[in-house]
Design goal:
- The chain is of the alpha/beta class.
- The protein has three domains: 4-32 and 221-296, no CATH class; 39-219, 3-Layer(aba) Sandwich (Rossmann fold); 304-400, no CATH class.
- Helices cover 38% and strands 13% of the residues.
- It is built from 16 helices and nine strands.
- The protein has helices spanning 8-14, 23-32, 39-53, 118-131, 142-147, 164-174, 177-184, 199-206, 231-241, 270-273, 304-313, 323-327, 330-343, 349-355, 360-372, 384-400, and strands at 35-37, 60-64, 81-87, 92-98, 136-138, 152-160, 189-197, 213-219, 258-260.
- The protein has a five-stranded parallel β-sheet with strand order 5-2-6-7-8, sandwiched between helices. The protein has a two-stranded parallel sheet with strand order 1-9.
- A hairpin with a 4-residue loop joins strand 3 (81-87) and strand 4.
- The N and C termini lie far apart (60 Å).
- The model has no long low-confidence stretch (mean pLDDT 87).
Length: 419
Amino acid sequence: MQQVDQQEKAKLWLSQFDRGPNDRALAEKLLKSVNYCPLNAFKDSMVKLTRRVLPLKQPSALFIERELQPTKAKLPPPLYHQKKTYSRRSKKKHLRAYGAAIQAIKSLKYKTQDIGSEALTAWIANTLCRQNPARFLLQPTADNVRTSKVKNFVVLTDFIGSGDRARKILDAMWVVASIRSWYSGKFIRFWILAYSGTEQGIANVRKHRFSPEVRVVTECPTLFNSFDYDQNDMIALCEAYGAHSDKPLGHERTAALLAFEHGAPNNMPAIFVSEKNRGAKRWAPLFPKRVTEYYWRSTEVDVAPLILKALDALGLPEIQSAPSFKRAGNPFKLAVIVLLAFSLKKKQAADLRRLLPLSLDLLLLAKDRAVKRGWITAQGALTLAGRKYMRMLRREGAKFFVAPDPFAPYHPEQLRAPQ
């Protein structure tokens, strides 16, 4: 696959970093740090997460996160319509939810229908509901929630950036008196399921009064967790060249370094998604109108040289000489790299991405293979089998390893007393 920084449009984008002598090199490193999630990987990961996390024998109502119509009120419009009905138990009239929920997909603009990632998420949710209609219901009516005895209210989304949009969906549920009643009676639980999310966004959602369970497929690489010594330089680069935007580091300064095949989130730095077409210094973003499909059309990657570089970066080049490692295929070798990285406390997606500049789906597959082989747990802890396999690889590799310069003169670094 042609690297994204070698494509013609990417080269034109990189050519704009001309104010400082090191700006171009920093921009190239920043571009290589952007993680990409293909469409198939997004779909498969969300389906697996939903099936695995939600209780098996409890009906779950799936709701799609989308932008709601802005209003002057403090809280958004309710998820369901409400009307006062007489209760025989309390002998009073109470607000009761009725009718259909808000639409899963709705454009806020009517001049041209602009649909976001909620369309794709709704399609995935609809597939789940068709496969198991007793377990999953897509935005059911209020009466259907009651008759089906729904136990879980689940909000599906592709990405949790600042967490504001997910909180608004939860607020739309909070406005409904019936939902508040079900929650106070502990009849329902709330969930937020996403492919990825930033730490601050996930923390923001968890603070909601419903105290939802938040689960993601993988953590989100950002400008703040993807770099070490040059982090301040990267931030200064994004702020200097993204000064044309009032949000140079993205919405709520989340500075996400994650792009999906179906689009880039507005939480990415402005140099990637924001355009300036007026004035002396114009700016052409890498992903105009947040369209990313062009840059990762091919998924064929030559991982062999990347595996060797990863072993060198881990300080274990001798493992490449182990016969069992040499005979194995690339998927197995990637799982070994994940095992070795976890043993050195490199467990975050940003750490793995620095070792192996591959798409997130390949890294997640490698981690899943390591888990299935019993080398690591699902939480990332090394198992006894994983430690044994690492020792075996090191012993094998040491027998056949040839130093880079076998003819270099040897001299002792320490003298010992005669025995």
